[in-house]
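agent> Task received from the user: take the single chain below, predict its 3D structure, and emit C-alpha cells. No templates, no multimer pairing.
agent> Plan: (1) validate residues, (2) run structure prediction, (3) serialize to C-alpha cells, (4) report one or two observations.
agent> Step 1 OK, no nonstandard residues flagged.
tool_call: predict_structure(input=
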Amino acid sequence: MLRAPVGDRRLDILEWLKDPAAHFPPQRHGDLVEDGVTAHAVAVKLGVRRKVAETHLGLLAGIGVLRATRIRRRTYYRRDEVRIAEVARMFEKGW
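)
tool_result: status=success, residues=95
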C-alpha cells in the first residue's frame, strides 16, 4: 500500500468521494452515494482522459481505499470507509 504514490489528484478523488452528490452530477445508472461514481465522471472533474482517471481509481482500489462495483458495463467507485479508518489508525500508532 505504501509503495503507491498518493499524489494530489488521488487525494482530490478521495476528498470528492466523501460527498459525491456535492461534487458530481447525477448519473443515469447507479446512485452516487450507494454505488459510487464512474471513471468518466472523475475524468471530467479532473479534466483528464478517462484512462488517466481509471489509472488513479485502479490504484486507489488496489490499495483498498476504494471499492469498485460493476453495474451494467461500467465500474462505479466509492470510498471504503472501514479500510480508510484502518489505514488512519496505523499511521496514528506510528506504524
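agent> Step 4: summary for the user.
The first helix runs from residue 7 to 16.
agent> Done.
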